[in-house]
Amino acid sequence: MTENKVHFERAIFTSWYCSIGDCAYCYMSTQKKLIKDPERARRSEASVLAEAFLCRKLGWKIGFLSSGYGSYTSESILDLVKKIHSIYGDKLWLNVGVLNENTIKKLLPYLIGLCGAVETTNLQLREKVCPNKPLDPIENMFKVCDKYNLKKSMTFIVGLGETINDFESLKNFIIKNKIGKIIFYALNPIKGTVFEKSKGPEIDYYLEWIKKTRQNFPEIEIVAGHWVNRVGYISKMLGFGANNLTKYPTIKLFNSEFSKIIEEEIKKSDKKFVGTLTKVPMIDVDKEIDSLDPLLFNENLKNQMKIKLLQYLKQLNKNKK
Question: Is 273 within 8 Å of 6 (Cβ atoms)?
């Protein structure tokens, strides 16, 4: 891919519930015993919608809507996707577990594609780190995507215990399932999981996965998830083949030194950053939220969104100088 523009892709996290809840690397595995009702584990609708609105205003792509398995019913995810699509003005990616064909058919008007939370293609390692998340259902969902001309993406976590020799299994998985986009995360140790004392993968090892993927798949879209401790290596990530960036707390650290480094690293790579991590947009909150489709957004929801949006803007301005 020769695109010279770089986007930040923000994953909009919508729920703390996961019906599997035992993946060894995941925060939601630490919450499984604490959550009984999926509905009560969701973020407020107003908060999610205000975040989607902010993504549009700041020029960020919505990487995907993200939740654990079983967080939504077919009807509830459709309602949320309709509203976000209306706000954002573009079709969406979903990473909300394995969806059945009936649900996918309902969502079709609003989707670019579906993301499979693959994480690792080493089958022995999967038995240890995500024993109840087999690949077959994910691959079956990808077959449904083919049926309806939806794009397919996957996540991959570097640092779970695989080695670079496992690249062949990733390569075979991409070819078999015709994956068009891959999101590489570097393991971020979560307190309460077996990885909490891990330092995550070395940067050169992480970069090697990006490099080999680009060499073998010239047309695939690669998104690099870097977290705060790797912002100084973003120009290398882009140089080795990443197209876009993700996995960084853009709202919390807006206009921070880390965000400034990210923008400088993109410049250093001779690419153009679309959007901003440092400049607060001018937003007429009342006017812009009031203009949303009244058939989808009632007055109460709009008022709640205004409150949340003002909270977000306060956070964005915290580091303003």
Answer: yes
**Integer Cα distance of 56 and 44 in angstroms:** 19
Q: CA-based diameter of the chain, in Å?
A: 56
Looking at the structure of the chain, the number of domains it has is 1
Confirm if 210 and 269 have CB atoms less than 8 A apart: no
DSSP class of residue 32 equals G
d(CA 182, CA 214): 11
* Phi and psi, residue 272, nearest 5°: -100, 125
Q: Per-residue pLDDT tens for 171-228?
A: 999 999 999 999 999 999 889 888 999 989 999 999 999 999 999 999 999 999 988 9
Which two tokens mark 179? 């994956």
User: Which domain range does residue 252 map to?
Assistant: 5-319
pTM reported for the whole predicted model = 0.95
Q: Distance between CA 134 and CA 204 in Å, rounded? A: 29
**Over the chain, what is the mean pLDDT?**
94
DSSP string, 126-164: HHHH-TT--HHHHHHHHHHHHHTT-EEEEEEEETSS--G
Q: The domain that contains 74 carries what CATH number?
A: 3.20.20.70
* Nearest-10 crossing angle of helices 299-316, 45-58: 50
Residues comprising the chain, all counted: 321
Which residues does 4 contact at the CB level (< 8 Å), separation at least 6? 270, 271, 272
Q: What is the mean pLDDT of residues 61-75?
A: 94
